[in-house]
Structure formats: structure tokens, C-alpha cells
Amino acid sequence: MPTSKQIINKKQDEVSDIYGKEMIRVIRSLLKHKIIDTESLSKKTGYSINTVRRALYTLQKMGIVRYINKEDKTLWQLLETDYEKILDTLLEPYKKEEKAETGELLFICPKCGRKYTLDEAEMYEFRCPEDGTLLVANQ
Fold first, then answer.
1. What is the number of other CB atoms lying within 10 angstroms of the CB of residue 123?
2. pTM of model > 0.85
3. Is there a single domain that holds both residue 10 and residue 43?
4. Closest to 59 measured CA to CA, from 27, 92, 16
5. Do 41 and 71 share a structural domain?
6. Radius of gyration over alpha carbons of the chain, in Å?
7. Which range of residues forms the domain containing residue 15?
């Protein structure tokens, strides 16, 4: 059974493949600072301002960050502080697309709302690894 760290690493690799490796570094910097301006984030990540903005706009569309205008400065505020949930949010549109293509059955934890593939559900013996609740099939 894969460890939580292995699962996160796999999700992180998938996010990097889809959005680029800069997305991971931007997210990690946001997790450290919670509220930060674009220029500072650019310096902290080592990426150009345009690259950072592209990542931020993607995160904004997904509801992970929001911008705040304060005294002629745009600040970005992280709305979700759980790294794995951020990765899940970024991967969700692709997982849904993949599910539609393959007809794969998904399982959901009715308590926390996390989604699992059949393989993951089997791996966790159809119990949510976060809270132990029995997973239900999503149709």
C-alpha cells in the first residue's frame, strides 16, 4: 500500500506534467507566505513575473487563490492551505475527463468529499484514509 507521501508525490508529478514544474514551486511558495505580491513571488521562485502570473491566474480560476488590490499593489492570497487538496483541485478536471473516457468508477467519501479511483479505493479497503468513512460509488 503506497504511503501518503508516495500518493502526494504521484499527484505532484501529474500536476507538473499538466501545468509545468513552475506550478509546484509557486504553490509551495504560496503555502509559506499565504499573502504575497507577484514580484516577491517571482523572486522567491526564480521565475519571471509572466510565468508566475500564468500560474496564479490558473490557480485563481480553480478557486485556490484570490487577488487583493492594496495601495497600488496586487497581492495574492492563498485560500486553500492543504497541499494535497490543492493538487487534487488542479487534477480534478483531468480526472473527470479521464473517467469519462475510460468509464472508470469513482468512489467518494461522504464525510470529507475526497474522490478515489477504483484502484485507490481497493488500496484503502474502501475506507477513506483521512477519516475512515466507508467510500460510496459515484455514478
1. 14
2. no
3. yes
4. 27
5. yes
6. 17
7. 4-78
